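Reading group handout, session on sequence-to-structure problems. Before we discuss, look at one worked example. The prompt was deliberately terse, the way you'd type it at a terminal:

> structure glutathione transferase

The input record follows.
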Amino acid sequence: ILDGSLLFQQVPMVEIDGMKMVQTRAILSYIAGKYSLYGKDLKERALIDMYVEGIADLLQMVLAFPFSPPEAKEKNLDSIKEKATSRYFPVFEKALKQHGQDFLVGNKFSWADVQLMQAILEVEEKIPAVLSGFPQLQAFKTKMSNMPTIKKFLQPGSPRKPPADEHYVETVLNIFMR
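And the output record:
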């Protein structure tokens, strides 16, 4: 912090290509651009950005859920399910159905596909049957899960972060409540 590496004095920070980058969205969009996961033109980039921002809104609710007070857990879980099934997942179901392609944008694997897969997995951890009314998303999840790098990442023992348990919640709360 004292050397100015953390531009806004907060993490995350990634050192890449001689830069010390902060801010999650900036880091992710840089990596997406670097590895050709950010569309072929501005129109595709705009679609990817819209999808990623929508997914981020859904993920924010899911990530906050473990920190809900016990009396609010059921209500918050109902809210996640309602918003996932009526607001967010229908958008992606429709997009995949309308263009009949394997990926959300330009029939090419993008950052939006990675984010959607993350959202599906995170919501399913809380609500296992959430995709029951979304055949396109079920097929998307299957295709994504069988991509070699994603398949490897989903295997037990991979670096994938496990769902937040009581110990994790307690640790985080202790850090932020000091």
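Points for discussion. First: Residues 1-35 form one domain. Second: The two ends are 19 Å apart (CA to CA).
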